[in-house]
Amino acid sequence: MAEPQSPLGTTFIPGDHGNSAAGVGVTLRERKNLSTIQVTAWPDTIPIVLTAIGSATGLVLQNKPGLGRVAGEKSVFGFAPGRYFVVSATPDLESRLRSAISPELGTMVDLTHGRTVIRISGPRSEWILSKLFAIDFSEHAFPIAYGRATLHHDIHANIQRIDDETFDVYVFRTFARSFWQTLGHAAEEVGYRVE
Questions:
Q1: What highest taxon heads this organism's lineage (predicted)?
Q2: pTM given for the model
Q3: Which of 138, 163, 171 is nearest to 68 (CA)?
Q4: Whose CB among 87, 128, 145, 188 lies 3.0–4.6 Å from 68's, allowing a Cys bridge?
Q5: How far apart are CA 182 and CA 32, in angstroms?
């Protein structure tokens, strides 16, 4: 079986970068070996689909805009009415969801090879992301586990807050290298570590 290759290529350079004399403001890393499934419910099946996602993942989600759940390597979050990202490190995620969600309830698309997940963590993560996206990253406006869909110029991104200092950013694989470099430039002033 072919080994999946990172789209970050030679731009992924582990170590400390930028102005880290006063410490590292954020840590950047690519999350690998994840299954990422987009589930879309029909307007009248949203509660049933949320129950099905819960039974397939163990992550119970209420029907509330942007609400999400995180447990270890598993996560789920809504980013539009009836639309959810479901993420897990287990390769059978899609089959478990398909066994719980029939076409009469909704649709699903496997985005595993179409998205790159970049994790940014550290005390300056809100500051760095605020330089790139026109949304409020403070915890009262963007609570833990919630998700958002937004743009950085023409690069679409789904973002989930993992904890008070950590965010996962999902970008199209074809834009991942460019976005990674942009993120590095944005983090230079506070110093960043690539792991």
A1: Bacteria
A2: 0.94
A3: 163
A4: 145
A5: 20
